[in-house]
Amino acid sequence: MTLEVVQWAEATNAIRAAESILLVTHISPDGDAIGSMLGLYHALSEMGKKVEVAVDDGVPDFLEFIPGWKEVSRRINGQWDVMVSLDASDEPRTGEAGAFGRSHSAMVINLDHHATNTGFGHIYLVDPLAVSAAEMVYRWLKWMEHPVSLESATALLTGMITDTMGLRTSNVVPVTLRIVEELMTLGPSLSDITYRTMVSKPYAAIHLWALSLPTLKLQDRLVSATVRADDMKKVGYYDATDGGLVSLLAVVEEAVVAVVFKERNDGRVEISLRSNVGYDVSSVAFALGGGGHKQAAGATVNGKVEAVQERVVPMLRQVIEQGIYNGA
Ligand code: 5GP
Ligand code: MN
């Protein structure tokens, strides 16, 4: 779904008619996943709806400041009139909460901003030009003329800031700053959100980088590193969020594509991709069954790290040479 499909009226009618609503987002939730979900949670609750929020992995520690985070369940049971899926480009990405919700909800609204969105659900609020799913929630609340509360604003600002890496990504446009300005005016502290989500990291994260960086390699404009499951166990850190080591590699000026291969203890490998403007790594992620944005994408694939590297590096070479992956 590379085109914008935004059905504000249909989505609003579905919400107005609903009594019970389930909100889900993607597994390994990041600031935009939790921020967009809780931003909408507060607004719908203020409208008098019965709202539940769920994601398999729960809320990561560094986001335990967003108002309402304690309301997020890891497991759910029930039936809903409407389920809203936020910031997830495909159905498997919503995990068990999404699968359960889909089969126990009368209707699914797909709210997202990934160009790789597969077009699942009944009603779409998908615009790849939005910098974050939180922006889509903000625009929807405006459309509904629902005043944004301090709680919503804090959650939405977190999504705006984290998905733009602190307003530094190439998709940031003047209207992005106007949205940020309005959210800030409602009270949340931009510096506090930025510090908590973009700056501060546990010592264990840096320790894990130290153990992983010996695998650092630069080969013809591709910078890569590998994170071993053993090392994650050694330091007691399980990074389940965006922008860890791969963001560090992405600063290497001799490279146009950065990749981190993260070995999981379930026989799968998480691939995190970053690229300079002009190089589309979402094409590789999509071909691997994942998704994302041109400049930041990822996928989780079966196999041993070495085998996955052998498969993925040639795909990235094609991106480096042609700007995009067009298939084998
Ligand atoms: P990160 O590398 O920071 O984990 O993710 C960067 C981007 O790729 C995010 O937009 C994220 O949603 C997307 N992404 C990462 N892993 C996956 C995956 O396994 N499946 C899908 N569909 N998207 C992913
Ligand atoms: Mn997002």
Outline the fold blueprint.
Blueprint: E1 5-6, H1 8-17, E2 20-25, H2 31-46, E3 50-54, E4 72-73, E5 80-86, H3 95-103, E6 105-112, E7 123-126, H4 133-143, H5 150-163, H6 174-185, H7 190-199, H8 203-212, E8 217-219, E9 222-227, H9 229-235, H10 245-249, E10 257-263, E11 268-275, H11 282-287, E12 291-292, E13 296-302, H12 305-322
Parallel strand pairs: 2-3, 2-5, 3-4, 5-6, 6-7, 9-10
Antiparallel strand pairs: 1-7, 8-9, 10-11, 11-13, 12-13
The structure holds guanosine-5'-monophosphate (5GP) and manganese (II) ion.
Structural notes for this entry:
There is one protein chain. The protein is of the alpha/beta class and 328 residues long. The chain folds into two domains: 5-198, inorganic pyrophosphatase (n-terminal core) (Alpha-Beta Complex), CATH 3.90.1640.10; 203-326, Diaminopimelate Epimerase, Chain A, domain 1, CATH 3.10.310.30. Helix content is 39%, strand content 20%. It is built from twelve helices and 13 strands. The protein has helices spanning 8-17, 31-46, 95-103, 133-143, 150-163, 174-185, 190-199, 203-212, 229-235, 245-249, 282-287, 305-322, and strands at 5-6, 20-25, 50-54, 72-73, 80-86, 105-112, 123-126, 217-219, 222-227, 257-263, 268-275, 291-292, 296-302. Strands 1-7-6-5-2-3-4 form a seven-stranded mixed sheet, with helices on both faces. The chain has a six-stranded mixed sheet with strand order 8-9-10-11-13-12, with helices on both faces. α2 (31-46) runs parallel beside α4, α2 runs antiparallel to α5 (150-163) and α8 packs antiparallel against α9. The longest helix has 18 residues, at 305-322. The chain binds guanosine-5'-monophosphate (5GP) and manganese (II) ion.
